[in-house]
TrEMBL record:
Record-linked Gene3D superfamilies: 3.40.50.360
A GO-annotated cellular component: cytosol
Lineage of the species this protein comes from: Bacteria, Pseudomonadati, Pseudomonadota, Gammaproteobacteria, Alteromonadales
Cofactor(s) demanded: FMN
PANTHER family assigned: NADPH OXIDOREDUCTASE A, NITRIC OXIDE SYNTHASE-RELATED
Molecular function in Gene Ontology: flavin adenine dinucleotide binding; FMN binding; oxidoreductase activity
The Flavodoxin-like domain, residue ranges: 4-146
Record-linked InterPro entries: Flavdoxin-like, Flavodoxin/NO_synth, Flavoprotein-like_sf
Protein name per its UniProtKB record: Flavodoxin
A Pfam cross-reference name: Flavodoxin_1
Keywords: Electron transport, Flavoprotein, FMN, Transport
The UniProt record lists the keyword Flavoprotein: yes
């Protein structure tokens, strides 16, 4: 059975709140298990399962605190399995480094060999309602996930 791996990169909690809400919505729509990773460690993540990454930018485009270790671990990796993934990048458009962390992890995972199955969602916390933005986005992601888990 599919077990979706949800990774959460947060410093002040907004992204965790959104990821928890998203997990509830996904469970209501899909018959799958979900593993929440609030402080993801690369070695314990299942690379045979799909990943959904919620990542806030902090500092000057750095990863949210709960994924700083993961960032360091990822820099030591040469390749990953071709698991399906998608990224929800959280930020504020007033920063030059708007959503840089989410953009970075998206690019890195693709370069390492993972399969991006759906367009990255970028949420501007100054303009967007994060839950509404996710709700608008996730129907397309579910279709993409269904196609790749059924094939
Ligand atoms: C000190 C600080 C630095 C930030 N740096 C960035 C940044 O470089 N790029 C960006 O898009 N947003 C940046 N933000 C905005 C955060 O991504 C935004 O506040 C987000 O909601 C934080 O999510 P979190 O509560 O899950 O940590 C920054 C916020 C703070 C407080």
């Amino acid at each position: 059975m599919t077990q979706l791996q949800i990774l959460v990169g947060t410093t002040s909690g907004n992204t965790e709140h959104l990821a928890d809400h998203a997990a509830d919505l996904i469970k209501a729509r899909l018959d799958i298990d979900i593993a929440m990773h609030y402080e993801p460690s690369f070695d314990t993540l299942d690379q045979t399962q799909p990943w959904l990454i919620f990542l806030a930018s902090h500092g000057a485009g750095d990863y949210g605190d709960s994924m700083l270790d993961f960032y360091a671990q990822l820099t030591d990796v040469d390749a990953v399995k071709p698991f399906p993934y998608a990224v929800i990048a959280i930020g504020e458009s007033c920063y030059d480094t708007y959503c840089s962390a989410g953009r970075d992890i998206d690019q890195r995972l693709q370069q390492l060999g993972a399969e991006r199955i759906y367009t990255r969602l970028e949420i501007d916390m100054l303009e967007d309602d994060p839950e509404a933005a996710f709700e608008q986005w996730y129907g397309g992601w579910i279709s993409a996930l269904r196609s790749c888990t059924q094939s």
